[in-house]
Design goal:
Order of helices and strands: EHEHEHEHHEEEHHEHHEHEH
Largest sheet: 8 strands, parallel, barrel
Number of strands: 10
Distance between the termini: 5 Å
Shape: globular
Bound molecules: phosphoenolpyruvate
Radius of gyration: 17 Å
Structural class: alpha/beta
Helix content: 40-55%
Strand content: 15-25%
């Protein structure tokens, strides 16, 4: 299976930055084989980026960074899955920055996951603990319960069949934007525990097939350590995703590793 690389541009690039990024990424990503790349520009530049991506190739897809769960209505400033359904293939849901600054809770996140699935958009459900779950052999029960809750409540109401269209991003909050990534060993251990929850809720097979990505201070220098782990289906990249050269390098490395 190809590794999946998601580039979350967050609220970084201006219109002209987005144009420059789009043309450099277009050139470097067009010819890669063996990785799926999903680019999530700020919503305001989504159409601009897509329209400027001249030759559409199936391994490069586009995502929104957020949605509102209702389809249409008096929701000033919001964008819905219904409005985005012909524009993006994926949406990032429940990013820790939204949980923190917009106070998104698991109920709202669950509604957003369901809105995506209703309109055949794949949600990338982000979950992650604020302080380390594992310390050697010890598990911080509080942190683990919070993480398990995000996973269970975020997926509440998602059927086994629908789970096939869900991606999960494990993003420990303490590792995001800190230049202090989790180790691959730590990540694999937490992902295995997350799969145990999924196995109980769905089935062993479903738990093994749902793609779980890692995100948190990934760079070109450390990405292969994560990519070589079969448990880790790919990477969600924030800060570095707006550095065209480094992001392309990560995608090239991913395409060589495969899954
Ligand atoms: C993110 O925004 O999800 C993220 C992982 O950011 P960074 O790569 O900058 O840590």
């Amino acid at each position: 299976m190809d590794k999946i690389i998601v580039g979350n541009w967050k609220m970084y690039p201006t219109l002209s930055d987005s144009s420059v990024l789009t043309s450099s990424l277009h050139n470097s990503l067009e010819t890669i084989h063996g990785a799926e790349v999903i680019i999530a520009p700020p919503t305001v530049w989504l159409m601009h980026v897509i329209e400027n991506w001249k030759h559409r190739v199936s391994h490069v897809k586009f995502a929104a960074q957020n949605i509102w769960p209702d389809d249409q209505g008096a929701f000033t400033g919001e964008t819905s899955a219904y409005l985005l359904k012909d524009i993006v293939s994926h949406v990032i849901i429940g990013h820790s920055e939204r949980r923190r600054y917009q106070l998104e809770d698991n109920d709202l996140i669950r509604e957003k996951v369901q809105a995506c699935l209703k309109w055949h958009i794949k949600p990338i459900l982000c979950v992650g603990e604020t302080k380390k779950v594992l310390n050697g052999d010890k598990v911080d029960t509080h942190q683990w319960e919070k993480l398990a809750e995000q996973l269970e409540e975020g997926l509440s109401g998602v059927s086994k069949a629908a789970l096939e269209n869900v991606l999960i991003a494990y993003e420990p909050v303490w590792a995001i934007g800190t230049q202090n990534p989790a180790t691959p060993e730590y990540t694999v251990e937490v992902i295995k525990r997350m799969r145990e929850i999924l196995a109980k809720k769905y089935s062993q097979e479903a738990a093994e097939t749902v793609p779980i990505l890692y995100g948190g201070s990934v760079s070109a220098g450390n990405c292969s350590d994560f990519l070589r782990e079969t448990e880790i289906a790919g990477l969600l990249i924030g800060g570095v995703s707006v550095k065209a050269k480094e992001f392309s390098e990560i995608c090239q490395i991913a395409s060589r590793v495969g899954r």
